[in-house]
Amino acid sequence: MPLTLPETAAPATAQPLDTTAFELLSVPVAWCDAQGRWLGCNRAFITFTGCTAAADGATALPGEVAAEGGAALSLPALLQAGADLDALAWRASDAQGQLLTGRLSLRCLAGWRVLTLLPVAAAPPLPPAAAALPASPDHRGLMEDMDSDAQLAHFGIWTHDLRTGERNWDDQVWRFWGRTPQPGALDLDTALTALHPDDRAETVALHRLSMTVPGRYAHRCRVLDPAGVERRIRTLWQVVADADGQPVHANGIVFDDTETFRLAQSASDAQSQLNLVLALADIAIWEHEAATGLLRTSTLGWALLGLPPQPQGLALARVMERLDAGSRQTLQAQLGTIALRSQDVDLDTGGDGPSDLELRCRRPDGQWRALLVRGVRRRDAEGGTLGHVGVMLDLSDRFDAQQQALALAQRLEMATAAAGVGVWSAALDDPTRVHWDTQMRRLHGLAPDAPAPTLCDYLANHVHADDRSAVQRSLDVLVQRSEGLLDLDLRIVQPDGQVRRLASRTSVRGGPGQRLLNGVLLDVTDRHATEDRLRQAHERAALAARGAGIGTWEAERGAMDAWWDAQMFRLRGLDRPPGLVTTDEMLGWLHPADRDSRLRQMRVALQEDSPSDAEFRVVWPDGTVRWLASRSSPVRDEAGRTVRRIGINWDITDARNAESARQERLLAQRESQAKARFLARISHELRTPLNAVLGFSQLLLADTVDGHPPDPATWRSRVTQVQASGEHLLALIDDVLELSSLESGELPLSLQPVALAPLAQTSLPLVELLAQQHQVTLTLAPMDGWVLADPVRLRQVLLNLLSNGIKYNRPGGTVTVSAEASAGWWLLRVTDTGRGIAPAQLQHLFEPFNRLGAERDGIAGTGIGLAIVQASVQHMGGTVQVRSTPGEGSVFELALQETAPQAPAPAVFAPGAPLPPAPLAADGRRPLLLYIEDNEVNMLIVRELVRQRPDLDFEGAVDGASGLAAARQLQPALILLDMQLPDTDGHAVLRQLRADPATAGIRCIALSANAMPEDIRNARAEGFDDYWTKPLDLTAFLRALEKLFGKAPTAR
Questions:
Q1: Domain shared by 586 and 489, yes or no
Q2: Is residue 412 domain-resident?
Q3: Same domain for 611 and 582
C-alpha cells in the first residue's frame, strides 16, 4: 500500500544533540538536521555500509527506500515531513558492489533527524532485465543447479513466460506449497486457492496487476498446504518488458519466513507477558546512561515521578530535586558524593549487586509518594560502566498504612483511656509476662506503679469468690479452642472491699510456644444499676398495660416488621408468646376493608417520621370483629436521629359501639327533625290549594244572603278557583314525586351528547312571555360546547333557573345564559341582576319547600324547583354552584362533563305517537267503553265525560272479576283499567285479557293515580297500549277519545 506522509514541519531551530551515546551503540546510526542535511554517523554505520559520506557532510544517504508494497519513497521528503517511521525497506550496494539490505527507522528529536539501520540477511540479486530469458532446458538446468543452494537458504525460484504462459517452479517452491516437486509449476488457480483466505484477494489482485505492468514487486502472504499447515512466505519478483515496453517475462524468489516469524512471535509474546506482569504489579523500569547522565524510564515511571514522559531522558540531578531532604541524604550515602550541578552524575553504588533505596518524591501537585528503587550496574565488554538499570515500585499505600496504623494505635490508647477501658495481655507459656495499662490498675483500685498480677493471682485475689470458678472454666475452654472470643460479665473486689461489675472480652492468639491472651475490661457497675431500675420500671409498666389491656410493640427505624408482646396477640384473639411479626401477618389479621388504608397510614408515618394515630378492625379466628386503636411515635437519640419506633394498641370496640349508637341516635333525630320540617312545609303547601278547593266547593253549595242561588258568573268564578287550586295541587304533587324519584335514583335518565347552543336557543322562547310580564331582558352569549346529559332534564333545569331569574329580578333587569369550557367540563351559567341571596340563606337554598321568605312577597312558586335542579344535575354527573351578592344578583353555574359532538341522528317516531283509531263494531252498534274502577267518584267523572260523546256507550265494573266477565260478554272497543282494584291489580287483569282469545285484541289503557316513571315504564312493558294518570285533565281526556274514535257527531 502507498505510504502517506504527515505534513508536519520540523522546528525552525534545533537544540544541541548529544551524539556521544550513539558511538556506544552497535546499531548503525546516522543523523541530519530538519532540512535533511547529513551531519554525522557512528562507527557501526560506517562498518555496515562502508560509506563515510555522511561523516564527511554529504547531503544524501546511499541506497533506496521503499514502502511495504515495493513503491519507492523519497527520503528527503520523509526527513522534511518530520514524522517517526519504522522498518522501511532499504537496499544499497557497498564499495565492492555487494547488495546490502536492511530496515530503516526514523526518529525526530528536538529538530534533529536520527536514522537507524537494522541489517538483514542479503537476498540474492534478481536477474537484471537484460538477462531475463524465456524458460528453456538450459534455463531449467540453471534452476536445478541453484536448487541445492535454495534449500540451504530457505528460498525458491520461479519463472513465468508471459508470451507462452509457461511457468516453472524449483523444488523448494513446490515444498513451500506442500507438494511433491515435479517439472513445471502448480496450476495458477490451484496455487492461488492454497493461499490463506484472509490473504487471497489482495495477493491475487497484486499478482494480476504485476503481470501487466513491468517493474519490481514484493509481497508477504500465508500458504496452507494440503495438510492444513500454514507457512509464511515472502516473494520478490521482477516483470521484464521487451523493447516496446510490453511485459514478456517474470522471475521471482520465494522466501520461507515461517521460522523467523515464529521466533519473532515468541519473542513478542515473551515481551508482552513481561509487560503484562510489570503492568499488573505496577512496576516501572528505568535506565541511567553513564555517558550522558540521562535517566530514562517507562510511562509508569514518569507517572510515579509526577512528570510528563521525557523520550530524550532527564538529567539525574533534575530528578533529585524532587526528593525530600531525607531521601537525598539516603541517596548521598549510597552514592558517596553527589553534586547538584548541571554536570552528569554517575549512579555508582560501588558494586554490581542489586541495591535498594527507599525515597520520598514530591509530585507537582504537592503530593508525596514513597518509592522503592532497585538497580544493578551495567558494564561493557571491557568492564567499563555503561550505566544502571532497574525497577521502581510505589510503596505509598504501604507507607500510608503504616502511618495510619501508628495513628490508630495512638487514638486507640486515647479512646480507651477516655472510655475507661482497661487493656491487658498475658503469655500462656510464661506466667510472668503480663501487661496491664494504667486504666487496668485504676479499675482495680491499684496504684499506677503497682505490679501487674499473674493470671492465677488475679483470679485468686481480685475476682469475686462467687464468680471465680465460672471465670476459670470459661478461660480454660477458650485456651483449649485456641480461637474465638470470650465475653464475660464478672464482679471484682477492690482492696477497700468495694464490689464492681466489669464486662470482659478476651481472645487467644499465636502458635505453640507463643500463645498470648489479650483482653479488655470495662466498668459496667453504673450501667447494671440503671438496667435494674429500667427493668423494674418496665415490669411495673407491663403490669399496668396488661391490666388495662394495652399491647405494646416496637420496630427498627424504617421497618414495618415489629416485635409484639403477648397482649398484642391477645387483642387479635391469638394465644402466642412475644415475638417478631411480619407486615404480611399483621395485614392478614386486619378486616379486609381496612387493609389498604392501614398500610398507607403505616407508610406515611415512616416517610414523615412522625407520630401516628389510627383506628381499624381486626378479625379474630372465630370470625369476631373487634375495633382497635393504635398510637405510635419515633424514638430519637441525643442527636435527634430516629433509632426505632414504639407503639401501643388497645380495644375500642365498646367505645366504637357506643359512639355508633350515639351517632345513629343523632342521625335519627336529625332525620326526624328533617321529616318534621318537610312535613310541616309540605302540609302548608298542600293545605293552601286544598283550602281553596274546599272553600269554593262550600260556596258552590251555599245560597246567597237572600236565599237564592248565586248568578252564573259567580258560579263560574268559584269553579275557576277550584280548578286553579286543583291544578296547583297536582303540580305540587308531581314535583314531590319527581324529586323523590331523583333522590332515590329511580328516575331513568338518557345520557347522550347534548349541544348547549341549540338547547339554550330553544329554551329562551318558552319563558319569553314571563320575561315580558316582569320587564326583564333575556340575553344568550355565544356558545358551542357539547355535554353529556339527558336533554329533557337539562332543558327542565335551564327553564327552572331562567324562570327563577325572571321572577326574582327587578324591572329593567337582565338574565344572561353563557357557557365556558374548563378542563374537560363545560360551565353553563345563568346570571341575573335580581335581588340576590344573603350568605346565611345560601346554605338553605336547595332545601325543598324552603322559599327563604319569598312567599311573603307574593311571588308564585312551590319552593321545590331548585331541589329538583340540584338532584337532576347531580344525577347527570354534574354539580351546581351559586354565587350571589345581595342587591346585585346571582350566578347559578352548572358543571357538566364535556363530550364529543354527535352526528345528527336519523328521524324516528316520537314516543307517545297517536294510536290508530279504534275499529267500529261489526254489527253497526256504537263502540262500547268499559271502565274497571272501584272508586265511585272516578267512575262518575269518566261516565259524565263519555256522555259528551253520544256515539259511545259506557259500562262500568267495580272489580277485576266483574270487569273480565263484562269484557268477554260485551266485547268493548276500549277498556280503561285502574291499577289498584279490591280483588287484584291491573297487571293481573291485563294478563288474563291477553290470555283469552276472545279478549286478546281489545285495546287496554291504564288509568291510575300511580304517576311514578317506573310505574308507567312497567305498564307499557307489560302490554298496555297507553298509560293515563289521575287526576284527569278533562280537555286532554276528550281529545284522546277524539283521536281514538274520531270527532263526536254534531247534535241536530
A1: no
A2: no
A3: yes
Q: Is the pLDDT of residue 140 over 50?
A: no
> Which cell goes with 129?
532485465
Q: In what order do the strands lie in the sheet with 385-394?
A: 314-315, 294-297, 283-289, 385-394, 368-379, 355-362
Q: Tell which of 616, 651, 686 closes a domain.
A: 651
Contacts of 888 (CB under 8 A, 6+ apart): 833, 836
Sheet holding 485-493, edge to edge: 434-436, 421-427, 516-523, 499-509, 485-493
DSSP 158-220: EEEETTT--EEE-HHHHHHTT----SS---HHHHHHTB-HHHHHHHHHHHHHHTTS-EEEEEE
What's the helix, strand, coil split of the chain in %, to 5? Answer: 40, 25, 35
* Phi, psi dihedrals of residue 1007, rounded to the nearest 5°: -130, 105
User: Radius of gyration of the chain from Cα atoms?
Assistant: 60
| Domain end position, chosen among 120, 154, 182 | 120
pLDDT over 70 percentage in the chain: 74
Spatial separation of the C-alpha atoms in residues 861 and 849, rounded to whole Å: 9
Torsion of CA 990, 993, 994, 995, to 10 degrees: 120
Same domain flag for 380 and 444: no
In whole angstroms, what is the distance from residue 109 CA to residue 57 CA? 20
Q: Does residue 975 lie within any of the structural domains?
A: yes
Q: Would you place residue 683 in the very low, low, confident or very high pLDDT band (cuts 50, 70, 90)?
A: low
Has residue 740 been placed in a domain?
Answer: no
DSSP class of residue 7? -
* pTM passes above 0.70: no
Q: Which of 36, 56, 33 is nearest to 46 (CA)?
A: 56
Number of domains in the chain: 8
Asked which of 804-808, 810-814, 884-888, 911-915 is least confident by mean pLDDT, the reply is: 911-915
Q: Which residue has the cell 335580581?
A: 834
| CATH code where residue 536 lies | 3.30.450.20
What range defines the domain where residue 191 resides?
Answer: 129-261
Q: For residues 266 and 618, which has the higher predicted lDDT (pLDDT)? A: 618
* Within-domain flag for 239: yes
Residue keyed to cell 550513539: 22
Count, residues in the chain: 1052
Over range 723-739, report the average pLDDT: 65
Calpha distance 711→719 (Å, rounded):
13
* Residues 771 and 889 placed together within one structural domain of the fold: yes
Q: Is the peptide bond before 2 cis (omega within 30 degrees of 0)?
A: no
- Cell readout for 541 is 409498666
Residue 638 and residue 700 in one domain: no
Identify the bridge partners of residue 829 per DSSP, sorted by sequence position: 818, 893
Cell matching residue 131: 538477462
Q: What angle do CA 307, 313, 317 make, to 5 degrees?
A: 75
Same domain, 29 and 104: yes
